[in-house]
Write a structure and sequence with these properties.
The protein has helices at 3-31, 33-46, 48-74, 83-134, 140-174, 176-202, 204-218, 221-267, 272-282, 289-304, 306-331, 340-354, 356-383. It is mainly α. Helix 10 (289-304) runs antiparallel to helix 11 (306-331). The radius of gyration is 29 Å and the shape is extended.
Amino acid sequence: MNKESLKKLLIQSLSGFFSLALAILFFFVLQRFEELRQSLHWLLWVLTPFLYGGAMAYLLKTPCAFLERQFQAALPEKYKKRANVLGVVAVLIISALVIYLLLSMVLPEMWESIVALAVAVPPKAEEFTQWVLSHLEGNEMLQNYVNNAFASLESWLKNWATTDLLPTVQNMMGGAFTVASSVLTAMKNIVLGLIICVYLLLSRKRFAKHGRAVIYALFKPARAEALLREVSFIDTTFVGFFGGKILDSAIVGLICYVFCMIMTFAAGFQNAVLISVIIGVTNVIPYFGPFIGAAPAALLILISSPRNCLIFLVFIVILQQFDGNVLGPKLLAGSVGLTGFWVLFAITLFQGLFGFVGILVGVPVFAVIYDLVRRAIVSGLRRHGKLDVLE
């Protein structure tokens, strides 16, 4: 047997061995799927502070790099090495101030709105009942039907309060230790995550250099450079999407606040800050965000004035059309490159797989997968001389 035949036989043997090994591994995963899922859940629970810290560091690395460049340009030569530390400190202070301002504006209004809802709902419900009955005078059958419907609703609410709500509150009070333990665990994870975030921001250049060294050590130069280009593309997609989406949501919230303030003087709008924050924050969620935010905001306005609620809903429709067709595409141009169909598909798929986190990251993740598949198809068509199929 010559050398070429031996080499071919060795390749076939290795291919068969690895195929068999993968089949056995796949069978093992299927057999032990529940145990593996629990192990993965436990691992994620242990690494929660690192996940928090990594997410915070990734969101802050772009403004941190910007501030570092500003400090490097402004500081004397002998202090330029401290620009990184100053950039990290500055971005943390700015982030803390933004969070504090938002909470200081939103929490008082939220409490006032909850109190107002608790006070206003019973008389408003009674007014609505009388209004319906007044318009049904002369039609005894419909009046009886409406009375029975409201009586059934009232009975259901009382039954729900005694059989579901009260036991739930009692269980929560009885499980105060469990609730306190969960709160303390969450606070611990946030504090540790913040410490990890600071460390990652301070050492981000060192980690990037070590990552490049590992890739070049494991792969040939051409393959390593191609892999680094893919990593750079993924980073650009995520930063462009989240940065553009946050800016887009801030502008939408500001426009909503200006409108609410105008309507406060013109028509007695209430809770302008709370409504604007709700609209701005939920707008971060692609596609479904405007509808999620409009519902509680419209309910707040409906309690005081149905007419104002209708005006607000018309404004929201106009605002979301402007955001979806003008503002959003301008700010997110080139960051995802997906049509509306694929955005909806990505959100639906990743929401089903990962819940709320999937809604937030589904679009950029799918954009990366979509681009990889697109480039693979283009490469295949070019290899077979069929690029004209895309024309």
